[in-house]
Amino acid sequence: MNKLIKNAIWILIVVLGASAIGGIALNRGENINALWFITASLCVYAIAYRFYAAWIAATVLIVDDTRATPAERLDNGRDFVPTNKWVVFGHHFAAIAGPGPLVGPTLAAQFGYLPGTLWILFGAVLGGCVQDMVTLFLSTRRDAKSLGQMARDELGPLGGSAALIGTFAIMIILIAVLGLVVVNAMKHSPWATFTVSATIPIAILAGFYMRYFRPGQVLEASALGVILLLLSVAGGGFIDEHETMRIMFDHEGLILAWWVMAYGFAAAIFPVWLLLAPRDYLSTYMKLGTITLLAAAIIILQPDVKMPAITQFIDGTGPIFGGKLFPFAFITIACGAISGFHALIASGTTPKLLSNERDIRMIGYGGMLLESLVAIMAMIAATVLDPGVFFAINSSTGVVGVDAIDAAAKISSWGYPVTAGQMQNLARQMGEATLFARTGGAPSLAVGMASIFGSAFGEGLLALWYHFAIMFEAIFILTTLDAGTRVGRFMLQDMLGNIWPKMGETSWMPSVILTSAMVVSGWGYFLYIGVIDPNGGVNILWPLFGIANQMLAAIALCVATGILIKSGKLKYSWVTGIPLLWLVTITTTAAWQKIVSTDIRIGFFSAANDLTDKLAAGVLPPAKAAIAQKLIFNLHLDAWLTLFFVSLLWVIVFDMLRVCVRYLSGKPVPPLTESAHCPSRLVEDWVRD
Amino acid sequence: MLNKIKTFWRLVRRLSGDDAYEQYLKRYALHHQTDNGDDCQPPLSKADFFRQWQDEKWNGIKRCC
Question: Which structural domain range is residue A623 located in?
Answer without folding.
Answer: 2-188+251-664
